[in-house]
Fold this sequence. Notes:
- By secondary structure, the protein is α+β, with helices and mostly antiparallel strands.
- The protein has two domains: 5-214, 2-Layer Sandwich (PmbA/TldD fold), CATH 3.30.2290; 218-242 and 341-442, no CATH class.
- 23% of the residues lie in helices and 38% in strands.
- The protein has helices spanning 5-22, 78-94, 119-123, 126-142, 204-217, 235-247, 251-255, 320-325, 404-409, and strands at residues 27-43, 46-64, 67-73, 146-162, 167-182, 189-196, 227-233, 281-283, 305-309, 312-313, 337-339, 355-369, 374-387, 390-394, 397-403, 413-419, 426-442.
- The strands form two sheets. Strands 3-2-1-4-5-6 form a six-stranded antiparallel beta sheet. The protein has a five-stranded mixed beta barrel with strand order 7-12-13-15-17.
- Strand 9 and strand 10 form a beta hairpin.
- Helix 1 (5-22) packs across helix 2 and helix 4 (126-142) packs parallel to helix 5.
Amino acid sequence: MPLSEKQLGLAMQKVLSAAKKLEPKAEVFVGLESSKRAHVRFARNEVTTAGEVDEAALTLSVQLGNKAATSSSNQTDDASIAAMVERTVRLAKLAPEDPELMPVLGPQKVVRNELAFDPKVDALDAKGRAGLVKDALAPGRELALSAAGFLFQWSGLVGKASSAGLVQVHPATGLQLTVTARTPSGTGSGRGQFYGRRLEGLDARAVAKNACDTAKRSENPRKLEPGRYTVVLEPAATANFAESLLSSMDQRVADEGRSFFSKAPGSSRVGEQLFSPLVTLRSDPRNTRTPMLPFDGEGRALQAQPWITAGRIDALGASRFWAAKTKREPIGGHGGFELAAGTTPRAKLLEGITRGVLISRVWYTNWVDGQTLLLTGLTRDGTFLIENGQIVAPVNNFRFNQSVADAFTKCDALSVERDAANDAETVTPAMRTHEFLLASVSEAI
């Protein structure tokens, strides 16, 4: 059984005490997660595997001056803790000095985020999961399509504690359902997904129906030549681009001249208008669509953080070390974000497009050039030709080579509707942008 909040707090204090007893001068940080996880995997319209596990994930970091070491374990009994502490202290003494090492954090003012935990997800049992999967399998069977997917459920406690007096314990839940449908011909594919922290809002049949409908529409694709096109990115594809953009927004990298956001040596483009006025990106732990834990991996309290407002850069991420070095305020490690909705209904994003492409999803994305934010990846699970404001045919998939910055600069419409399309802490609309480079044809479905 997962630990209670009291038990988890006591376990962290036990680790802290053991480490301080062995090495009184050490600074000590403990992370402990106690959770129950369950999954159901299915393929070809049948359940293939299912499982449930209770798990503890314990992390210990010991700092001795500018030396530090970290160990991890899934055991919390006295003997395992003693062995872990001894090993970590020994490794810290052997470690090279790290001039950027920061002291562990002390007490933080954190307001509990009740949105991060749902008792209904926590109470979901094998029968409940079976019911969800039954609903998810129904559309594929009814339409003679092959459906595969994954249902994942998580609930537990996340704790942080330090020898400087930090103590954080917070409950959280998570729920994920993904369904991929394929046509018998093997030429059509579609994907539906749900990510959230709460059971409310999950319609497993609707998720699967969306995958099946896309698969049917994408069957027998027409050949389309590579080139630059006006594209409509569905929320799942938009989320990937927004996530890539946010991951590049780092103050240190910009100050050191290694970033798209670099300016003169030692400065950045914070405050400049770099993207379309439609683009507003922010992180807020208490957003009802993207609830997060109210502290980051260091135990630092998180507040609402604007990153981009109407295309203007508000802030770049800053570690505690870099913030102290450059006399700035540090910005915590937010886990997710929201891209603000636009004013255009999703169905009207196609209007005015003489010849373009609708992209349902992208995958296998990697940076080509971080300074220009050039990203490469593949389209999949439904790519369609747009002509005169209408979807006229499915087309082959592509490898794209596209600057993320350019995509958000040339964005001229975002949908009113938004989806949590990549994880429980991310919500994005669909996006229309121009001169998007579909560089070569991909044979993948």
